From TrEMBL:
Entry keyword DNA-binding: no
Protein name per the record: Flagellar filament capping protein FliD
Lineage: Bacteria, Bacillati, Bacillota, Bacilli, Bacillales
PANTHER family linked to this entry: FLAGELLAR CAP/ASSEMBLY PROTEIN FLID, FLAGELLAR HOOK-ASSOCIATED PROTEIN 2
Flagellar hook-associated protein 2 C-terminal domain: residues covered: 9-184
Length: 197
């Protein structure tokens, strides 16, 4: 978010820096649905596939592993030589590492696991934030219900402000009438005292 010149003048440098840092971090930073989905994807990749050759039951065994540098945030690195050797030695096991449609998560291949995790994460996000592809109302997802509650609060506050404004107008009108009566009495008294001199 950028500030106008007037808004920037009202903020000190530290406030501007903090606000811009917050804006850059984004609304989805540390979102529990996204971090949970990401953690499940990692677990899917690192867990061995049961029911296949133990020499090719995990990506790391065929030359695909994650970077040891934590700044890479789980970047996959592959050793082409080790991967070619594994494919030449047992291509069926490599195929089974990725493809089986097992009955449990442990026996499913990596593509099936990842597809399921991505679909589950997508469904959880749609439950929370809604889906533009379907005709869903605000009542059918969490953020929509929260928006509806905020709209209702705004309406109640606006109604309350109108009541307060009307009360002040009544008080102001009553005060104006009282001042007008005092002015009339003051004029009458001045005429009475001025007329007797």
């Amino acid at each position: 978010m950028q500030f106008t010149d007037d808004e920037r003048e009202e903020l000190n440098e530290k406030q501007i820096e903090l606000w811009e840092e917050k804006a850059k971090s984004g609304l989805l930073k540390n979102d529990s649905l996204l971090t949970g989905g990401l953690n499940q994807l990692r677990l899917d990749i690192y867990s061995p596939v049961e029911g296949i050759s133990q020499e090719a039951a995990m990506l790391s065994q065929i030359g695909i592993k994650t970077s040891s540098n934590y700044l890479d945030k789980g970047k996959l690195i592959f050793d082409g030589t080790k991967l070619r050797e594994a494919i030449d030695k047992d291509p069926e096991s490599i195929f089974q590492l990725f493809n089986p449609s097992g009955s449990t998560d442990e026996t499913k291949g990596l593509t099936k696991r990842l597809r399921k995790t991505l679909q589950d994460t997508k469904n959880n996000i749609e439950q929370k934030a809604g889906n533009t592809g379907t005709l869903s109302t605000n009542d059918s997802f969490l953020i929509g219900r929260n928006l509806k509650d905020v709209d209702n609060q705004i309406t109640r506050f606006e109604d309350r402000l109108i009541q307060i404004e009307n009360r002040y107008w009544r008080q102001f009108t009553a005060m104006e009438k009282a001042i007008q009566r005092m002015n009339e009495q003051s004029m009458y008294l001045m005429q009475q005292f001025g007329g007797g001199m």
